[in-house]
Each structure stands twice: as structure tokens, then as C-alpha cells.
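Hello, quick one for you while I still have it in my head. A protein chain has come my way and I'm curious about its shape. I'm sending you its amino acid sequence along with the C-alpha cells. I'd be grateful if you could look everything over and explain what you see. Here's the protein in full, and shout if anything looks odd to you:
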Amino acid sequence: MYDIKCDTHTHTLYSRHAYSTIRENVIEAKENGMELLASTDHFSEMLWPEYTNLKNYQYLATSPTIWPKEWMGVTLLSGCEVDIVNLQGGLFGQDISVDKNIVGDPIRPTNLYELVTRKMDYVIASIHGKAFTKGASRTQLTDMYIKALQDEKVFILGHMGRSGLDVDFRAIVDAAKSLNKLLEVNEHSFEFGSEAEDSITRSRCKELLEICAEKGCKVSIATDAHISNLIGRFEKTKVLLEEVHFPEELIAGLNKESFLKALKESGIKGRTV
């Protein structure tokens, strides 16, 4: 059975539908033998009614400078899970202009996405709201994911197996491999919908893993935990990895060294790399 030592997609209270503090998550990570924990709260219109207001994102924007890099023996990375918001692969906050800081002083004009993520270790790009994808072709949806992955801060495409979108996994795997970036399969995906929905998600995740194994593309295995007691628990995902005989060397987060090496190879510059 795979011995995975990194949890690379987790949430804290900031995400509003999650229930633990960063300290509680670190404690759980330590107790479950994790060498590395990445906290990746939602960066999305779903969080705040006044979603264009910079003041709502202080927690995310300052976490890279406030959190210790090592806490209780666990390497702690700072990131976020940003929503893909259009068929061009645009990310939440890129179209929201910012020219003042949280106290109203003028700053160099930028956008909310750049301001919030620029000091983070990495970003996960995911689909949540899917209304904008209605009527889109398979090619359009595939290109959307690839363009999102090309963003200089995006390291991981989150839970594609759960999105239900008709995409060309092979094309996306090829793009991820060429960019030295990761595709994610996470534990939360198998506990999200009805039994029938979970079965479809599992089938899609299995297909994605099989293609990644065939093409030699690295993956991110994570929990997407929204409460601390789920940190570092990959039981259902490990069963799926076993079924496809997935190569250990393609699991970026098998241990701290392998994940930090993969992050460095991506070219993403953060506080840790």
C-alpha cells in the first residue's frame, strides 16, 4: 500500500464551509505522519458577497509571510484553490482591478489574483460553478483546463475527475507533463455526491490515473480535507492507485523531498522554492 507523506490540498475555517484552524490541521498532519502540508483555501466568488473587496482576502494574501515554513516538524506550504471562471481558462480575481491596499493607500495597479497569490508557494486551479461551461464543446473545455494550467502560479489542476466535464484527458496529461505540473486525484471526490455520482467520479479518476501512468505524468494525491480529522487520510484513493498499479515515482507528494523537487521543476517561485 502506498505510503504518502504529503497532503497538498486542504482547507481551513477561512473557506467558510470548512471547520478547522491552520494549527489544528498541522497537528493532525503531524499525528498522521505527514512530512508536508499545503493549506489551499478557496479563492473564489463563493466566499464573500462583496467578493471584489481586497479586505476580504487578507488571510490568504498574508499567510505566506505570517506562517512558519516548519511547524511541529511539518513543512507548511501556503497556497489557494482558485476557481476557473471562463472558457479561456481565466482565474478568479484576474479581472478585478486593485490600485489601493487594505488601508486605502495607493499601490501599483494590479489585479486581485496577482496581489493575493504572488507570494504563495503555488495555486490549485479547479472548477466549481459550471454554468459558464454549458454548451461548450469537448475541445473548448480541454483548452480551458490547459490554459489555466499555463498560468505561472498554477501547479495543480484540482479534481478534474469530479467536475463531470467532457474533456480530453490525454491532451491535458500531455500539457501537464510538458509544463512539469500536476493533475490531482483527491479523497474528497469519492464522498461528494450520490452513490451513482461517486461511481462515475471514480471511473473518471481511474481513467485519468491510467493515462498519467501510461504517459509518465506526475500526479498530486490529496485529501481536499475540510476538517482536520481527514488530513492525511487517502484510503479510497490508495485503493484506486493499487487497482491501476500506479508507479510510486509519479506520485509527486510521496514524500516532502519528491514534492518540493516537483515544485522546483515547475518553475513556480514561492516562499519555499
Remarks:
- The first helix runs from residue 22 to 31.
- The chain has a mean pLDDT of 96.
